[in-house]
C-alpha cells in the first residue's frame, strides 16, 4: 500500500508508511484488522458491479463488507474475476449469476452513475463520508471527527426553534423559562 500512496499522492516512503500505520491504528480502534502490506492494487469496477448485484438480493452490505475484508485484511485481489466470484458465493449469491454478471456489462451503468455522483460531491479518494448532502469528510479520520460531522449535519437539518406558550415563533423565554 505504501507504493500506491507514493505514486498516487506523491508521498515519500516514510510519509506513506506513517499514513499506513495511522490507518491500521484507526482501524484497530474500531475492531478492524488491516494488513496494508498485503493490499493488491487493481481495478475495482467489477467489484462495484457485484455490490449492485448483491443489493438486488438483499446482500449489498454483506458484499461490501466481504470485499473490504478481502482487500484490507486478507490481501486478495478484488480486481480478479475468479476472486470476485468466490467472494460473491461466500455472501450467499448464486455462483452462476455472479459469473454471468462478471462476464457481461450488467450493472455497469449503475456504477458509472455512482462515479458521476461521487465526482459531483467532490470525491477524490477513499474513504469519503457525506452527511446530509452538505457536509463532507475525506480521508481516514478519527471517530470524533466523524461524530462531529454527524452532529453538525443533524443540527443543520434540525434547528432548534423556540416557541412561546401559544406555539408561535417569537420571543419564547419569559420569567426565566423557555420552551423548545
SSE topology sketch:
Blueprint (H helix, E strand, L loop, with lengths): L1 H8 L3 H17 L15 H12 L3 H14 L7 H10 L4 H9 L4 H14 L6 E4 L3 E4 L4 H15 L23
Antiparallel strand pairs: 1-2
Note down, in words, how this protein is organized.
- This protein is mainly alpha-helical and 180 residues long.
- The chain folds into 2 domains: 114 residues, Glutaredoxin, CATH 3.40.30.10; 56 residues, no CATH class.
- Helices cover 55% and strands 4% of the residues.
- The chain has a two-stranded antiparallel sheet with strand order 1-2.
- Strand 1 and strand 2 form a beta hairpin.
- Helix 1 packs across helix 2.
- The chain starts with a helix and ends in a 23-residue tail after the last helix.
How many domains in all? Answer: 2
Based on Cα principal axes, name the global outline.
globular
CATH C-level class of the largest domain is Alpha Beta
Q: Could you tell me how far the N terminus lies from the C terminus, measured between alpha carbons in angstroms?
A: 51 Å
Could you tell me the strand content as a percent range? under 5%
Helix content: 55-70%
The CATH topology of the largest domain corresponds to Glutaredoxin
What's the alpha carbon Rg, rounded to whole Å? 22 Å
- Largest β-sheet summary: 2 strands, antiparallel
Structural class: mainly alpha
Order of helices and strands: HHHHHHHEEH
CATH-level-4 superfamily name of the largest domain: Glutaredoxin
User: Spatial order of the strands in the main sheet?
Assistant: 1-2
Poorly predicted ranges = none
Which architecture of the largest domain per CATH?
3-Layer(aba) Sandwich
Mean pLDDT over the full residue set: 88
Total strands: the figure is: 2
Helical segment count = 8
